[in-house]
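Batch manifest, entry 17 of 40.
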Amino acid sequence: MTYTITAPEQINTTIKLPASKSISNRALIIHAIAKGKIIPQNLSNCDDTEVIINALKNMPEVIDIKAAGTAMRFTTAYLATKVGEEHIITGTERMKHRPIAILVDALRYLGAEIEYTGEEGFPPLRIKGKKLEGGHLEVPGNISSQFISALLMIGPVLENGLELKLTGDIISRPYIDLTLWTMREFGAEADWTDVDTVTIKPTPYQDREYLIENDWSAASYWYEILALSNDTNSCIKLEGLMDGSKQGDSVLRYIFSLLGIKTTFASKQQGKPTTVTLKKHKCMLPRLDYDFTGSPDLAQTFVVCCCEMGIPFKFTGLATLKIKETDRIEALKNELKKLGFVIHDENNNTLFWDGERCTPTNQPIETYEDHRMALAFAPTAFHHQGLEINHPEVVSKSYPQYWEDLEKAGFIINKK
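Output type: structure tokens
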């Protein structure tokens, strides 16, 4: 399937964002560990959350989490604690090539029974659940935060709790903090006890009513839309976001303020979702340098946006992009070249653009089975008439109603 996208001359719309996938997935795993009866409210309806819901509800012998990396990591740790149960967890072909050895080794160290049913170090996994002792564990701090979060969330049900020391550089710390915050919302005693150590006491989770905030990652594409729009009077309102959000990607509002997008909250009451108003101002920024170590999922949004705004950049902290749904560094280089931009990478963790251009090919944008490629490239329709995107259905992984929301905002989408 291919969509051809035409952008409107002006935007004045109110969008109800999808619920946070990150919080939904954490709350669901915690709810399952707690054997809770009260389902969290405002759960995300994206693919990644749906596979966790289905897995936890049905608990089949073979659990297929498809392309959901978060679900693979979180559910693996959860299954390791399910005393007396045995399951195989698997996914798509791409998932079978995404490394998981660091998490498996850590769980085995805690006493888990896990074996590889295919290639060593990669899913599928056969997991025999048992009571785990817990205690002291060390893992590298530069691995995916999802590995770390998976270990943290089972901490309260380990006999001796968990003392997790992160060695070396710690990346994606905001996602670790989001996990700890969500755990504490359900009664866990979990916090940093040193600059590199998290301590979790063996205190059971408490079942409770819980409302999930909407998704700041999804908001990033609307900020990008306003930044690339040609009308200075355009205005976008986004529902269900919080001032002081614990979502790491909420940092985007500060970065976009440098690109001329002002954020106003209807209410600043802590812990209460409200409506955010975005307005466009003139951007005078000559270039943007930023370290995305704490929020790598925003990289595609800002790489594409800065190119289209003609703002040179150097973005570091992108090491995890090579092992996401696709190699996002190569994907960005390939697809931006189609739009006339030549970007470069170095050290497997940096992307930069010095203003170098090439002749646009105007070929359709490929999405590489990666939702964020489609989400981040759609706003470039403001600058590229007749923009085409292949396999647009990939947005279901995190933002299923994206195309409908674009149409609501005045975009014209022709489907073939």
